[in-house]
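pls read this protein:
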Amino acid sequence: MMATMAEEKENEDQRYPAPPRLSPALRQIIFGLLGAIAYFVLLGVTPKPIPRSILQPNPSVEGPLFLSLLFRLEEFIRSPYVNVPVFLVFLYLAVYRRDRQNSWIFAFLTGYAVPGIVFYWILRWL
């Protein structure tokens, strides 16, 4: 009885082979690209206050103080003075810990930071 159960289990394993595992480098690249896609999605979804004039570069949000503080915090986080060091830290962690199971988080955050840095420098030169 036990032998037949073991044979059935072996037959099931042969019918349904395990899916191939992704290499750590390929997994990091995939999650980095997903981070960049998430940047563009959130850029399109989050509302931006419209400036009333050219002389007012950073418009204040009319409404609750909490909402105004959130927009200021988002502007600070997306600034290159914060974005570049955070990018470098997450890039280091993504490379250094690439063989660990939770290293995809660092690759995702690195990919999320790249478009902000690239667009900042492209728009600055135009």
Notes: The chain has five helices and no strands.
